[in-house]
Amino acid sequence: LARWLPRPVALAVAVPLSAQLACGPIIALFSEQQSLVSVVANLLATLLKDVIGRERPSGLYAEPKPLVHAPKTGSFPSGHAATSFACATTLSFFLPRWAPAFYVLAAAIAWSRVYNGVHFPLDVLGGAALGVLVAIALRWLVAALQRSRRATPAG
Question: What is the DSSP annotation of 101-150?
């Protein structure tokens, strides 16, 4: 994939799709929307990182050292936070009773990025907000398209 696309775009497509393939049977009921929301959130986060260009904590401070490899891309917003909160929001639409668990998991994923030293807290808050907004916008768009199909007379 990286041979044909720029690396950030290839990663933005490959990571959510591989996660979707691994978790496909679990989320079969809503896999189309889940995949779409994950890819869109990751693409937007990747584009915003390039536009904003905020330095990662390890690029600004010598200590503490990150616990994991710090990517060379920008820091704001966190792509992990964006995709995890986008997925948590979409899953919550379908399984509202499980919403607290989905959001706790998304928050743990987001916090791990700060704990590991590759993001500032504001980066993950921005990513979380982006993910929730993407999920809500795509849900609204899908509902609007379904309404327009029903309203369009056949023939």
Answer: HHHHHHHHHHHHHHHTTSS-HHHHHHHHHHHHHHHHHHHHHHHHHHHHHH
Number of Cβ within 10 Å of residue 46's Cβ equals 23
Residues labelled as active-site residues: 80, 119
Among 57, 40, 53, which residue's Cα sits nearest to residue 134? 40
* Nearest of 23, 8, 11 to residue 105 by alpha carbon: 23
Tell me the angle at which helices 121-151 and 99-115 cross, rounded to the nearest 10 degrees.
Answer: 140
Written as tens digits, the pLDDT of the chain (155 aa) is 445 556 665 655 565 555 555 555 455 545 666 778 888 998 999 999 989 988 888 776 677 776 676 777 888 999 999 999 999 999 899 889 999 999 999 999 999 999 988 899 999 999 999 999 999 999 998 888 888 877 776 65
Q: What is residue 116's DSSP assignment?
A: T
Global confidence as pTM: 0.75
Lookup: tokens for 69: 């490899």
Distance (Å) of CA 112 to CA 81, 148, 152: 10, 42, 47
